[in-house]
Write a structure and sequence with these properties.
- Helix content is 0%, strand content 49%.
- It has no helices and 54 strands.
- The strands form 14 sheets. Strands 3, 4, 6, 7 and 8 form a five-stranded antiparallel sheet that branches. Strands 11, 12, 14, 15 and 16 form a five-stranded antiparallel sheet that branches. Strands 26, 27, 29, 30 and 31 form a five-stranded antiparallel sheet that branches.
- Strand 3 and strand 4 form a beta hairpin.
Length: 672
C-alpha cells in the first residue's frame, strides 16, 4: 500500500471474481483478478457475501496488500445453502461493485441405486473465462475420483458399491488458472440395479460332445460374473457360474447333445448380487438321420438355429444363417458336403456305397459376417444292406396228416436280415414255379415249417424252394430243391404187391435208405423192410396172408444221408398208396353132415366181410339157409331136421377190398 495518497487520485476498479471453491466445512476460497493501480491509491479488497442474491450482504473479508488475489472466508457455511459474492476495492474511495457470483451448490438425491446430482451455475450467463465443463468427483473411503464431465447441470451416477458412503463435488476450470468447486454432498448408497444382460453369441456342440457356450460381456462395469442356465424338465436351472466381466465362454461336459436339442441362457451378476435379466435362450443343433438301407440313402434333419444375436454393423435385424453340412468318410477329414439356405433344415444324401462309415455334423454360419457359428452333434452311419443268410437248408419236403397235405421244413441263419420267406412249388423239377405261400421271419428262430394248402400228395410229386426276402423286399438266397415222394402201389393175383416211387430230392448228401411201412385193412402201420437210398421200387409178397380183405396200405420214408459231424438228419414221408389183392374162394362140391365134412362152408380169402351174403336153395327155389358171416356154414338142416340127400343150389355174393362186386352160383351134393 502506498504511504502517500493524492486527494484527487482516481479510484481503483473492483476485482473480477473468477472462482469460488467450497471446502468440506463450507468455507469459501474466493479468487479474483487484481485490478490496475495506476496511482498507488490501493487500500483493500472487500469481499461481500449473502445467502440471498438481492440483499443481506455482509463484508466478510478485507484483503491487503494489493498483490493478493484470493482469500478464504470461514465465517460462512456454504455446505447447506449457496452463497453469493461480490467485491469492491477501497482506494481513497470505494469502487463500484463487481458482478455477483454464486457458489456452485450441489444437491445429491438417492435414486435407488443411482446418485442423482443437481447443481447451480456460478452465474447466468456463464463467466466469459469459464470453459463450460463441469467435472464430477466422487469420494469413497477418503479417496476422490473423477467420475465424468458434462456441460449440463445434472448427472446420474450409477452406483457400483454395496452399502457405501459416498460424497460428490463439482469442479470447474477458469481460463485465469483457478478452479471453482461446489459444496460436498452425498449419503449412503446401495447398488440395487441389475446389470445390463449379456447377449449370447452362440451355443455349439464340440467334437467330443461338449457344449461350447459364448456371449458378449455385459456393458455394466461392476459385473463380476455370469450364471449359466439350462432348461431341464421345462425349468431353467443354474448349472454353473463363471467369474470375470470379460469371461465370455463356458464349456459344459457330460451333456447329451445326441439325444435332443439342449437349451441355454446367460445372466450377469454384480458384486452386490444383483442379477441381470436372462438373455433369449439358444438351442443346440440336434442332428438326426433316417437311413434307408434299401435304396442306399440317408436323410439328415436338424432343428433350426434361432435366437442368434442381432447383426452388428449391418444395418440392424437379426442374423440369417446358412447351414454347412460336413461329412467324414471312413474316418477321413471332414469336408463340406452341402450348403443349405437358412430355411432348409433337411438334406438327403443318395448313392451311398455299401460298407462305408459316414460321420456328419452341421454348422450354422452367420451368412452376413460369418463371425458366428454353431455346430451340431456328430452322428455316424455304417452303410449296409440287410445281411443275407450265411446258410439256409431245405430239411425236408414231406407228406403229412395221413397223406392229405405237403409240409416244407427248413432252417436258416438267425443272424440274417430276413423279413419273409416265400415258398414256391412246381409240378416237375425244372418247370415253372408258382407261389404257394409265405411266412414272416420276424421270430428269428432257426427252424421253419410251411404247410401247402393246395397240394394233392396222392396224385403226384411236387418240388419246393424257399426264398429268403430281406427287409428291402429283395430275394437274397434260396434253399435247395425239396421234392416230395409220390408212391404208387399195385397188387396182382400171384400174391405180390409192387411199389414204385420217385427218388427224394435233394439232400446235400443224398438218401441213406428208404423205410417201407405197411398196414392191412386199415390197421396200424409197421416197418416191413428197408432198401438202399438208390432204390425206387419194392415188391412185397403177401401170399402168406390169407385173412382180411386184401387191402394193403403203404408209405415210404426216406432217411437223409448225413455226415457224422452234423447234428441234423431228416426224413421225408411219401403219400399212402394202396394195393389190392383179388378175393380167392374155395367151395366144396359135397358134404356129409354125419361124416368128416359136416358143414358146407366156402373158404374165403380177401373178401370184404361187410358185403358177404351166402344162401342155400332147394331145387324148387325154397330158401333153406342164409348168412352174412363167412365163418358160418350150412349143416344140412332146415328148421331142425336134416333135409333129404340130394343136390342143392348155393348163391354167394361178396365184394373185394377195392370194392369189386362178385356173384357166384353153383350146386353141392349133401350125402347121408
Amino acid at each position: 500500500m502506498a504511504s502517500n495518497q493524492c486527494i484527487n487520485a482516481q479510484p481503483i476498479s473492483a476485482p473480477v471474481i473468477h472462482c469460488i471453491a467450497i471446502d468440506s466445512a463450507g468455507a469459501a476460497t474466493v479468487t479474483w483478478t487484481i485490478p490496475a493501480d495506476t496511482n498507488n491509491s490501493f487500500v483493500s479488497y472487500n469481499i461481500f457475501t449473502s445467502k440471498t442474491r438481492p440483499a443481506g450482504y455482509t463484508n466478510s473479508a478485507n484483503v491487503a496488500p494489493d498483490n493478493q488475489n484470493s482469500t478464504t472466508i470461514t465465517s460462512i457455511n456454504a455446505s447447506t445453502v449457496p452463497y453469493y459474492f461480490y467485491a469492491t476495492t477501497t482506494s481513497g474511495t470505494v469502487s463500484a461493485s463487481s458482478d455477483t457470483v454464486e457458489s456452485i451448490f450441489l444437491s445429491v438425491a438417492n435414486g435407488g441405486g443411482v446418485a442423482l446430482l443437481h447443481w447451480t451455475p456460478m452465474c447466468t450467463p456463464n463467466l466469459p473465462t469459464f470453459n463450460g465443463w463441469y467435472y464430477i468427483y466422487r469420494e469413497y473411503k477418503y479417496k476422490w475420483t473423477l467420475v465424468d464431465s458434462t456441460k449440463l447441470l445434472n448427472y446420474s451416477d450409477t452406483i457400483t458399491y454395496c452399502n457405501a458412503v459416498l460424497n460428490y463435488k463439482i469442479v470447474t476450470n477458469d481460463a485465469s488458472g483457478c478452479q471453482s468447486s461446489s459444496n460436498w454432498s452425498g449419503g449412503t448408497f446401495q447398488n440395487n440395479i441389475p446389470p445390463v444382460m449379456p447377449v449370447m453369441d452362440s451355443v455349439s456342440v464340440g467334437p467330443t460332445g461338449n457344449i461350447e457356450i459364448s456371449w458378449y460381456p455385459s456393458p455394466t462395469k461392476d459385473v463380476v460374473g455370469y450364471y449359466i442356465y439350462e432348461n431341464i424338465n421345462n425349468a431353467w436351472i443354474i448349472i454353473d457360474s463363471v467369474y470375470g466381466i470379460n469371461t465370455t465362454s463356458f464349456n459344459l461336459t457330460g451333456a447329451s447333445p445326441g439325444t435332443g436339442s439342449l437349451s441355454f441362457r446367460i445372466a450377469g451378476f454384480d458384486s452386490c448380487h444383483n442379477v441381470s435379466a436372462e438373455d433369449n435362450p439358444q438351442h443346440t443343433i440336434y442332428l438326426q438321420q433316417t437311413p434307408d438301407n434299401c435304396i442306399q440313402t440317408n436323410k439328415l434333419s436338424w432343428n433350426k438355429y434361432v435366437d442368434a444375436p442381432p447383426v452388428t454393423g449391418g444395418g440392424g435385424g437379426y442374423n440369417l444363417f446358412e447351414y454347412e453340412i460336413y461329412v467324414s468318410i471312413n474316418g477321413g477329414a471332414y469336408t463340406v458336403l452341402k450348403i443349405n439356405p437358412a430355411d432348409s433344415v433337411t438334406y438327403i444324401q443318395t448313392g451311398l456305397s455299401t460298407k462305408e462309415t459316414l460321420c456328419y455334423f452341421v454348422v450354422a454360419v452367420d451368412s452376413v459376417h460369418h463371425n458366428i457359428t454353431a455346430s451340431s452333434n456328430i452322428i455316424c452311419y455304417q452303410v449296409t444292406t440287410p445281411p443275407g443268410p450265411k446258410f439256409d437248408y431245405m430239411r425236408s419236403a414231406t407228406v403229412i396228416n395221413n397223406s392229405t397235405q405237403n409240409q416244407v421244413n427248413w432252417y436258416v441263419d438267425t443272424g440274417a436280415g430276413i423279413q419273409e420267406f416265400i415258398i414256391k412249388r412246381s409240378n416237375e423239377p425244372g418247370t415253372k414255379q408258382v407261389y404257394v405261400g409265405s411266412i414272416s421271419a420276424a421270430t428269428h428262430t432257426v427252424y421253419y415249417s410251411f404247410t401247402d394248402p393246395s397240394a394233392d400228395p396222392n396224385t403226384q410229386s411236387y418240388t419246393y424252394v424257399v426264398y429268403s426276402e430281406d427287409s428291402c423286399s429283395i430275394i437274397t438266397d434260396s434253399t435247395q430243391i425239396g421234392q416230395t415222394i409220390y408212391l404208387t402201389a399195385s397188387g396182382d393175383n400171384s400174391g405180390t404187391n409192387t411199389l414204385n416211387w420217385n427218388a427224394y430230392g435233394d439232400w446235400t448228401n443224398g438218401v441213406n435208405k428208404y423205410n417201407i411201412f405197411r398196414n392191412e385193412d386199415g390197421g396200424a402201420f409197421s416197418l416191413i423192410s428197408s432198401v438202399s437210398g438208390s432204390s425206387t421200387n419194392y415188391t412185397d409178397n403177401v401170399s402168406a396172408i390169407i385173412t382180411g380183405q386184401g387191402i394193403f396200405g403203404y408209405y415210404v420214408q426216406a432217411m437223409e444221408q448225413q455226415p457224422s459231424t452234423s447234428p441234423l438228419a431228416d426224413t421225408s414221408t411219401s403219400n399212402i398208396a394202396y394195393a389190392y389183392q383179388d378175393p380167392r374162394m374155395y367151395i366144396p362140391n359135397a358134404f356129409d353132415p354125419k361124416g368128416v365134412n359136416k358143414v358146407f362152408r366156402p373158404v374165403t380169402v380177401f373178401v370184404d366181410l361187410q358185403n358177404y351174403d351166402f344162401t342155400i336153395y332147394d331145387r324148387w327155389g325154397q330158401l333153406l339157409f342164409e348168412t352174412t358171416d363167412p365163418t358160418q356154414g350150412w349143416d344140412g338142416t332146415f328148421h331142425g331136421p336134416l333135409v333129404q340127400e340130394g343136390v342143392y343150389i348155393y348163391h354167394i355174393q361178396y365184394t373185394s377190398g377195392k370194392g369189386e362186386y362178385f356173384n357166384q352160383r353153383g350146386w353141392v351134393m349133401m350125402l347121408k
